[in-house]
Amino acid sequence: MKLEMSIVGTAPLTSQWNSIDWNIILRKVRQIQTRI
User: Fold this and answer.
1) Apex CA 31: angle with CA 16 and CA 6, to 5°?
2) pTM exceeding the 0.70 threshold for the entire prediction
3) What's the gap between Cα 18 and its chain centre?
């Protein structure tokens, strides 16, 4: 949850985030969390 919130928190800082597929990012974050 912390990683996900930190990523979302940095989103407004750059316009490049708008072109990123959030589904892929959240999917990767969840995979990392399940490993820990």
Assistant:
1) 45
2) no
3) 12
The count of domains in the chain is 1
Residues 11-29 have pLDDT tens digits of 555 556 566 677 788 888 8
Which residues constitute the domain of residue 24? Answer: 2-35
Is there a contact between 3 and 29 (Cβ–Cβ < 8 Å)? yes
DSSP 8-state symbol, 20? S
The rounded distance, in Å, linking the Cα atoms of 31 and 36 is 9
The residue among 21, 24, 35, 17 whose CA lies nearest residue 8 is 17
